[in-house]
Known about the structure:
Structural class: mainly beta
Number of domains: 5
Strand content: 35-45%
Shape: globular
Largest sheet: 8 strands, parallel
Oligomer: single chain
Strand order of the largest sheet: 22-21-20-19-18-27-24-23
Amino acid sequence: DEQWRKLNLPHDWSIEGEFSEEHPAGSGGGALPGGIGWYRKVFNIDKELEGRKVFIDFDGVYMNSEVWINGNYLGKRPYGYISFRYDLTPHLNFAGDNTIAVRVDNSLQPNSRWYSGSGIYRNVWLTVVNPVYVDLWGTFVTTPQVDSEKAVVNVATKIKNESDINVNVTLKSTIIDSSGKRIVSTESEENLVVGSVKEVSHDIELTKPHIWSIEDPYLYTVESEVYEDGKLIDNYSTPLGVRSFSFDPEKGFSLNGETTKIKGVCMHHDLGCLGAAVNTRAIERQLEILKEMGVNGIRTAHNPPAPELLELCDRMGFIVMNETFDIWRKRMNEFDYSHHFNEWHERDLTDHMLRDRNHPSIFMWSIANEVMEQWTHAEMDTIDLKMANILLNLQRSELDQLALDEGLSFNSMLTQKLTGLAKSLDPTRPITAGNNETNAWNHLFLADTLDIIGINYHLEDFDSVRARYPNRPFIATETTSALATRGYYRMPSDSAYIWPVSWDIPFFDSTYACSSYDNSHVPWGSTHEETWNKVKNNDYVSGMYIWTGFDYIGEPTPFWFPARSSYFGVVDLAGFPKDAFYFYKSEWTEEPMLHVFPHWNWEEGQEIDIWAYYNNADEVELFLNDVSQGVRKKESDVFHVSWRLTFEPGTIKVVSRKDGKEVMSVKKHTAGEPYQIKLTADRDRISNEGVDLSFVTVEVMDKDGNLCPNADNQIYFELSGNGKIVGVDNGNPVSIESFVEPQRKAFYGKCLVVVQGGRKSESIRLKAVSKNLESASLNISVR
């Protein structure tokens, strides 16, 4: 027993490891270790619960999990992003200890194109119900009619009878408003025979509904209550957002009757220095930062997300594209999901959609991202007729089989099968896929079953693809792939850096850095301004999902080790915005803003390009040491203004004006030598539940309080009181410092420390120290 480590879930063991190019995941997987891990928990079940059903629900385990209870094998789930349940009831000891064991195998690598994490990295729940109960994911709440006067809410509820007798029950469906008030309900009497599952449909009229929108994401709750002989024996809650939407081939996306451009980002699931381990506050912080930028959409790239993400998107108002697969039968990595697709794809897609289909933030499903099945490939397409029939007709009756003589390829018929299954599970939302092949012979297009044409990149092909499918809505499922390192600037800024030459050819630049001017992108991508210009000025494009909102661990294109995290994010891995963040803020929000970059610490005589993003103004003027350097106005289809100056120490000032009146002004001073540390907490009061976080920004300042933009001082952290340091970061994609040790080098003047509160009501004191710098401290209240 001494060899077992005591820890809390969720847990990701990979993030605790050391970076190395020897790890088989490679830089693409974050250069962190995988391996095999065992989890064990001993627990007791109250004797009074005997006779009830006891389940264990896993939100996600990466990957190849196997579970035992008291030595009894419960099963295996290979896919690391799927949620699943096991019935513990037959194997429980109500008179003593019970032991649950979980084996997690992430040893066969590479199995992912990005960092996956390892372990029970999502939450686990022990669920106890009576033998007659609402089944897992057993409700489907839809709104077939919505307007400002009335909404018709359909509540379909599956009730399961695992008792040993037939029972008569009353099912009551109630709509509850956000204050907890019961608004309206309906009920019906139902007879359930032993061993049956019965689906009951209720229609409820909701008068003058409070409409869910991006700006006002109002949530109701549908409460499904099961009564036997007047006694409540089960209740089940489902979120409800009353809204209507449509995708139109000409006008794009409309929400509640208003044309709305989707301004989205793709997000992988890691949480920076916290790794893959789910933390609600960490996800919420990411979404808050993206909201400030003007983002209204999230694509769950490229897998089922944590339930907490969707709950937050419901509450905060995002348009979610919920994606299931990055891989079908054809592999991209040696040990990826292609090994499991044949056996598991139906169950995984079904479980994903049943789990998530009640979330009002979800507006479309994606069944694939850049799958190899878009193309014909002789070796990878080899499949015998028997296996083709098994895969295409699994769980189908003879009358409902897909014929193999329809003149379509197997890949097209597989697309038909997956879209058909998806539509049977949720006929209320459209199905799309992220396609990076735009030609007509793309097998996914030939299937003719995708409701929305989804294109990754290829701005130059948008119009031709739209012309080929004039009756299908169109969305840019993945865009841009611009490259940037926060705080690094490569001049002249009007030069283009398209890196690497090809995705499969190693690329090297001694800086391991990409310019934070919007002048660097991958060959298949485009700049932020080019992309938005295309999407903004074409009504048929429903919107876009930028690759990516945040940097993520793994896939450090265009570089290889020691680079170990991406350069694609509009926000860096630590959560610090890059300059492009403010471009989108100027375009995607109405809030007046003016962002000027870069800093003003250079060599005398050096030519420096100054850029400004702004809105709510007609013009901007730049002053260098109080001398005007000229007035600039944005040209058509160009979203920034710029000046080229010869550096001299002092101050630059930029003023924006509208109708000749000043709107905003920004000053940047030449900073002196590093002198002191500044600490700023995103929240100085957190809960005492043992999971809440405070994200503390650490800045190196000069004597006058100016950020030192090139500072790289080593910062050490000391913490006392009711909490612990759970992560450190600085946004540097090349840093191989530990994410868990209490120290970090500043990167272009900044780093981050993440503090977690304990379970007592007392304060935390954090201190940051560095050689030759004045230290800094702050208190965080835990209540």
